[in-house]
C-alpha cells in the first residue's frame, strides 16, 4: 500500500486522471472526503503547501506538488518525476510604470514565498525587506506596502488587470512526483513501478 498526498484542486484531479489512464478505473474522492482508497493506494487530499510536510514526515510515502513549493520549503525529500502539469512561473512583479533598479541599496518585497524571495535578492546582492503575505499579493505595490512582489504567474491576467508587469522570472515550476526518503528505500519496487507507469502516461507513450 502506498499513501499519496495530493494538493486539493486541479493538480489532484489531473493526477487522478493519470491513475485512471494507468489502471482503467475511476479514481474520484467522494464529496468532502479527504481519504480515497483504490487499488493499492491511499490518497490524501491536502493543501498544496502541506504536501511536503506529509511526505517529509512519512504520513504519505509519495506526493505531488509544485517545484515552487519544494524550493520554498526545502524539505529533504526525493524528487522523482516532472508531471508536466500545473505549469507556472515564479516572478518578480512591479507596477507598470516602474523599473527594477538594481542600484538601490534596499527594496521592500511582498510575497508568500519568503525564502525564494530572500535567496533571489541576496544572489543579486540587493538588500531586501520581505513582507510575508498570505494572498492578494498583487495589491501590495499598488498601495505602497512594497516596491515589488514575488508571486506565481500562470496566465499573467492577475498582474495585468492590476496594473503590474513581470520584471524578472525567478523560476519555472510544474507539479512533481516526490517521495519520502525512507519510503523510497522501504517500498522501492512499488514506488518505481508507479513511477514508470506515470512516466509512460506523461511521455504520452
Ligand atoms: C496565484 C497567484 C496569482 C495568480 C496568478 O494565486 O498568487 O494571484 O494565481 O495567476 P494568473 O497569472 O493566471 O492570473 P492562486 O490562484 O494560486 O491563489 P492563492 O493566492 O490563494 O494561492
Distance between the termini: 26 Å
Radius of gyration: 19 Å
* Number of structural units classed as domains: 2
Give helix and strand order, one letter per element, not per position.
Answer: EHEEHEHEEEHEEHEEHH
Give me the CATH fold name of the largest domain.
D-Maltodextrin-Binding Protein, domain 2
Tally of individual helices: 7
> So, the CATH homologous superfamily of the largest domain?
Periplasmic binding protein-like II
The proportion of residues forming helix, as a percent range, comes to 25-40%
| Biggest sheet record | 6 strands, mixed
Q: What global shape is seen? A: elongated
The CATH C-level name of the largest domain is Alpha Beta
Q: In the CATH hierarchy, what is the architecture of the largest domain at level 2?
A: 3-Layer(aba) Sandwich
Task: Report the sheet-strand fraction.
Answer: 25-35%
Q: Are there runs of 5+ residues with pLDDT below 50, and where?
A: none
How do the strands of the widest beta sheet line up side by side?
2-3-1-4-11-5
E-strand count: 11
Which small-molecule species are bound to the chains here?
1-O-pyrophosphono-5-O-phosphono-alpha-D-ribofuranose
Instruction: Label the structural class.
Output: alpha/beta
Amino acid at each position: 500500500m502506498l499513501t499519496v498526498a495530493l494538493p486539493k484542486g486541479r493538480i489532484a484531479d489531473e493526477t487522478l486522471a493519470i491513475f485512471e489512464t494507468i489502471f482503467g478505473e475511476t479514481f474520484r474522492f467522494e464529496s468532502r472526503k479527504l481519504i480515497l482508497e483504490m487499488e493499492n493506494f491511499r490518497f490524501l487530499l491536502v493543501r498544496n503547501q502541506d504536501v511536503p510536510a506529509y511526505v517529509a514526515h512519512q504520513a504519505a510515502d509519495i506526493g505531488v506538488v509544485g517545484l515552487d513549493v519544494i524550493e520554498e520549503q526545502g524539505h529533504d525529500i526525493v524528487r522523482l518525476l516532472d508531471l508536466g502539469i500545473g505549469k507556472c512561473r515564479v516572478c518578480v512583479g512591479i507596477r507598470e510604470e516602474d523599473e527594477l533598479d538594481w542600484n538601490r541599496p534596499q527594496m521592500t518585497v511582498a510575497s508568500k514565498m519568503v525564502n525564494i524571495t530572500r535567496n533571489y535578492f541576496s544572489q543579486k546582492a540587493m538588500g531586501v525587506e520581505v513582507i510575508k503575505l498570505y494572498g492578494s499579493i498583487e495589491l501590495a505595490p499598488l498601495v505602497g506596502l512594497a516596491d515589488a512582489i514575488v508571486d506565481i504567474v500562470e496566465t499573467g491576467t492577475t498582474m495585468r488587470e492590476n496594473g503590474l508587469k513581470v520584471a524578472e522570472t525567478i523560476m519555472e515550476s510544474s507539479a512533481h512526483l516526490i517521495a519520502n526518503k525512507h519510503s523510497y528505500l522501504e517500498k522501492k519496487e512499488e514506488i518505481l513501478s508507479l513511477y514508470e507507469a506515470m512516466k509512460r502516461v506523461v511521455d504520452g507513450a
